[in-house]
Amino acid sequence: MEGVVSVSRSRILKVHTTRSWDFMGLTLDESSEVTPLQLAYGDDIVVGLLDSGVWPESESFQEESCLGPIPSFWKGKCVKGEMFDPKKHCNRKLIGAQFYRKGFEEQFGKINPRTFDYNSPRDYVGHGTHTASTAVGSVVKNVSSFGFGQGTARGGAPRARLAVYKVCWNRELIARCLESDILAGFDNALHDGVHVISASFGGGPPLSPFFRSMTDISAFHAMQRGISVVFSAGNEGPFPSRVGNVAPWSISVAASTIDRTFPTKILLDKTISIMGEGFLNKKLKGKLAPSRNFFIGSCSGANQRKNATAEGMVVICFSNDPSMIGVAQVAVANIGGKGLIYALPVTYQIAETNLIPVVYVNFDQGTKLNQYIFYAPKPVVISPSKTSIGKSPAPSVAHFSSRGPNTISSDILKPDISAPGGSILAAWPPVTPPSPSSSDERSVEWNFLSGTSMSCPHVSGVVALIKSAHPDWSPAAIKSAIMTTAYNKDSTQDSILAGGSMKVADPFDIGAGHINPLKAMDPGLVYDMQANDYITYLCEIGYTKEQIKAIVLPGTHVSCSKEDNSQSVSNLNYPSISVSNLKSTVTIKRTVRNVGHKKTAVYFASFVSPHGVKVSIWPRILFFSCFWEERTYYVTLKPEKKSQGRYDFGEIVWTDGFHYVRSPLVVSVNNTAGHCDDTTLSYSI
Q1: What are phi and psi for residue 571, nearest 5 degrees?
Q2: CA dihedral in degrees (284, 288, 291, 294; nearest 10)?
Q3: What's the CA gap between 397 and 504, in Å, rounded?
Q4: Whole-structure pTM value
Q5: CB 562 within 8 A of CB 575
Q6: How many Cα atoms occupy the beta-carbon half-sphere of 71 within 13 Å?
Q7: What residues are annotated to the active site?
Q8: What is the predicted pLDDT for the residue at 653?
Q9: Is 233:244 a contact under the CB 8 Å cutoff?
């Protein structure tokens, strides 16, 4: 078919604030004579959000008086639909709103009132409203959810414009996104004139090759047009090799916690006092009973004992899987329980909005409570939760955040960066229950959600600010600025921890580190790349000319020479360096560009060697004599130990005394006798 690049079956993908921006250093200090960074940039930037739509009446999407006219370059539109009138609902803030349903309806049937969604850009699920508010929401004062997290809400770039592309639809209060609809949304976004695309969805392994992935193909097209694409890394942590959205031309975002907690005191029989985490807005009294009184095994309806009743009781349940909280709370509610204490492994405690009062504790705390009530239920008093800021070390990697290594190309580090994604407060449709339960009849305009779906729009907002300040920077340069300025220490100046474990976070957990928006605006040096660099990379991982043509924009020249195939994938000018199969000495090339404020600059190299690897850098000093000048350096890695299948980590830092340009160094030495060579893969299109 003329004009058709490739045809493939459409996959179903899943969608993966008040405090978070302050935590990242972007404060709105009205008493300052200097305009806050968030308000100084963004007016000329359009962020395209591919998600479940938008609730246009939310204060997050109302235009502020200081917002200028809609940019003249904008070609997008607002499309009329069910309960969505462009003349009424679009403005100088919300400048685009379209919807794409063909793929979803082919898979699940027609959208109608019984499907609980709107045949329009209007959001029912809430996911799209939440992510849009986080990325570019207007400044809204005095917001909270049930009194928690009270403060001033705004997106990362509150002056930026919003264009919504509804590609995800309600399926039992979960947003489901068909690749064919995503492709249509991407295509319109690229032609409409967006500068940034924020896409909080994806799938885990087995990952499709890039030429079979509509999202990766669309992101490549965006990159070729100078548009940054930000994806969520996925919510399949803490297990290794589960990270999604791993294409090197897009940004994959992990999730981390912030320094806001919601301590909730449990007092059992006036004897044992435990501090958990929850969202309780009033005191809860009852008798605490063990789950074994009502369930055989885990707390679920399928395991319920015959004629079990927990009227007036609080039930304590234990689980290794935080995602089962929905099943547990419904099961407890169905037997009349008035509350739930949910015990999880340590580092898994992140408060969520639940159907019934829930307090999260760790296994140690839960065991103390459970032993005390071993013979009989005992009276318990749970105090209202409080909002606490700055009292706990942060950030830490959220337990659910998907981890590397990258299963398509292990010499490209993924995720790239981490950003706030735990208990994030943002806008919400008032018609949609705050918890994912059809029996929840409460209504809120602001809601807490957790996931890499929440961390993704944080990075999208920062990308919008950087693009506004540096309009001539490429997507690769912007990603480099974000990655090389990231930090790896928490608020106590100790190493950031990896939730879901007791260990220090490594690059497979956190990528280059936690995002630092202020530093990213002025990184000093950047690692840049263009489409040809990625085409060379695709040649190196074994893709044919025809397969690469299925990825690039039509008309793009594609050539895979023998020289290309002899190069290492590690030589892609990425802001991190990964070598997944070091058997003997290798030398890797990197090129940096001076984007600092000084015409002349001198940068000095330092490094931390991965265990058992000798690192040499040449030259050790880089001299720049003009703006945008480029310099190349080489990193030689020599194995000095016998090892197999084990990763070690280090870093390379270039500094001029003010800027610190840091790159993670990830190496796996594989040189023991009997170690098998890598399998060579080939694909057919």
Answers
A1: -80, -5
A2: -90
A3: 10
A4: 0.94
A5: no
A6: 22
A7: 51, 127, 453
A8: 98
A9: yes
Task: Check if the beta carbon of residue 98 is closer than 8 Å to that of residue 188.
Answer: yes
360: β partners: 277, 342
Q: What is the dihedral of CA 121, 52, 461, 412, to 10 degrees?
A: -140
Instruction: Give the list of residues 6+ apart from residue 614 with CB closer than 8 angstroms, or none.
Output: 637, 638, 639, 640
Amino acid identity for residue 439 in this structure:
S
228 forms bridges with which residues in the sheet? 196
d(CA 182, CA 219): 11
Please give the pLDDT value at position 35.
77
CA–CA distance, 463 with 71 (Å, rounded to integer): 18
Which tens digit of pLDDT belongs to each residue from 12-62?
665 545 689 999 999 887 666 677 899 889 999 999 999 999 999 999 999
Q: Where are the alpha helices (DSSP H) in 485-615?
A: 507-510, 517-520, 531-540, 545-549, 562-566
Phi, psi of 549 (to 5 degrees): -65, -25
Is residue 608 classed as helix, strand or coil in its secondary structure? strand
- Dihedral sign, CA of 468, 471, 473, 474? positive
Q: Which of 342, 349, 346 is nearest to 370 (CA)?
A: 342
Q: Would you give the DSSP letter of residue 471? A: T
- Once rounded to an integer, what is the mean pLDDT over residues 149-177? 93
307 secondary structure, DSSP code: T
Structure tokens that stand for 122 in this block: 């209007």
How far is 459 from 275, CA to CA, in rounded Å?
32
DSSP H helical ranges for 492-617: 507-510, 517-520, 531-540, 545-549, 562-566
Tell me which residue has tokens 């589960």.
Answer: 242
Residue pair 95/161 in contact by the 8 Å Cβ criterion: yes
Q: How many residues does the chain have?
A: 685
Q: Are β-strands 388-389 and 378-382 bridged in parallel, bridged antiparallel, or unpaired?
A: unpaired
Residue 232 pLDDT class (50, 70, 90 cuts) = very high
3-state secondary structure of 589: strand
Average pLDDT, the chain: 92
Contact criterion met (CB below 8 Å) for 184 and 178: no
Residue 251 and residue 386: Cα distance in Å, rounded? 35
Helices 214-224 + 475-484 axis angle, to 10: 100
166/121 Cα distance (integer angstroms):
6
Question: Which of residues 64 and 242 earns the better pLDDT score?
Answer: 242
Cβ contact 290:393 at 8 Å: no
- Residue type (1 letter), 273: S
**Dihedral (C-alpha) 130, 184, 204, 546: value to the nearest 10 degrees?**
-150
Spatial contact of 663 and 652, defined as CB atoms under 8 Å apart = yes
Bridge partners (DSSP) of residue 389 are 260
Please state the separation of Cα 46 from the chain's center in Å: 20
Q: 3-state DSSP call for residue 507?
A: helix
Closest C-alpha among 87, 200, 67, 195 to residue 139: 67
DSSP state, 625?
A: -
**Tokens representing residue 554 in the block:** 């039509």
- Note whether 388 and 380 are within 8 A (CB): no
What does DSSP assign to residue 145? E
Cα–Cα distances in Å, from 242 out to 319, 322, 407, 409, 505? Answer: 21, 17, 8, 13, 16
Strands 577-582, 660-669: pairing is: parallel
Report CA-CA distances (Å) from 445 to 20, 57, 140, 426: 18, 10, 12, 8
Distance between start and end Cα atoms, the chain: 16
CA-based radius of gyration for the chain: 25
Helix/strand/coil percent split, the chain, to 5 = 20, 30, 50
Other beta carbons less than 10 A from residue 486's beta carbon? 23
**Pair 661, 619: CB distance under 8 Å:** no
